Amino acid sequence: MSPATKLLRELVALPSVNPAFLPDKHPYAGEQRVAEFLAAVSASAGLDVMLEDVFPNRPNLLARLTPPGKIKQTILLAPHFDTVGVSSEKQFSPQIKNGRLYARGACDTKGSVATMLTALITLAKSKQRPSETEIIFCGLIDEENAQSGSRALGKSLKADLAIVGEPTRLKLVTAHKGSLWLKFETRGKSAHGAKPELGVNAVHEAARIVDLLETDYAAALGRKKHPLLGRATINVGTMHGGVQPNIVPDHCVITADRRTLPGETELTVQRELRALLKKKKLRAILGESKSVPGLPLETNPKLPLVQQMLRSFGQPKPAGVDYFCDASVLAQAGIPSVVFGPGDIAQAHTTDEWLSLAELDKATRMLIAFFETLS
Q: How far apart are CA 199 and CA 266, in angstroms?
């Protein structure tokens, strides 16, 4: 069993479910078990370790490999510790079958955690460690909810490059879509169900808006394309309205997920939607259903360190991904950011989440090879 596989088996057995997915004070909630375990692993390997509380008992972990000479550049390795919830406790019991490790978090993103820390520990023990490059493993909390870990890190640390750990199928990613959660509120007039003509049905108005968003608006988004990310998209995820069948509903709320492209902002998206509703004579109060919108990522692939990674990986050009992650948050804080890790996002959040162990080990070798190119 390789060092990365051994570490991954230990990590997935430690529950670190984001508290947003659990009732208050649930025993599986929070990232502290993982942070403390990896702090001990990192310290025993000679790394300088610090736990920084973002919330009580929810710390980011910083494990630093300091070069022997003057620090000329700093690189961050930034996977996240938290996972989504589970449907069964068995998901915390790793199973290895046919070269795959099955468990909650194996793909998203404890595989990246194991890859990045194993690579850094290997480098720390090597005679080829960089003489002027500082590398910091930054295990982050709360990526699956509000990205509080990366937001705190961006305020406290500066670096020349952040490599954010997510399942990218071993591709170096320089662009990802943003995620804007929108809320549409319709108002009507209540009446008895036996006399619906006396009321105004808010659910009916909302249904017309859903149809518009999922047809005409979605088709129009196909005209917005990015060379790495393809088209912008929208998905209506929830609709709530009414009290009971014999009352004309006077209120309904729709929420939708709008995946944005570089160059689009919260303001431009809301402006185009308000114009569309006005054109179609549909009435709704438009706002956000999430307090902090996730902006798209677009890092310049010509940056020297990004070019160095691409050459090291043998990858002719960078890739893009549909999902949002901590890379955008760190980039907005002024840290050029890319995304890399083993696994496929198609496995993330699934009941039978798994990761290829061959891919895990290859990702580790790829990072070590990149580290060895650093001065």
A: 34
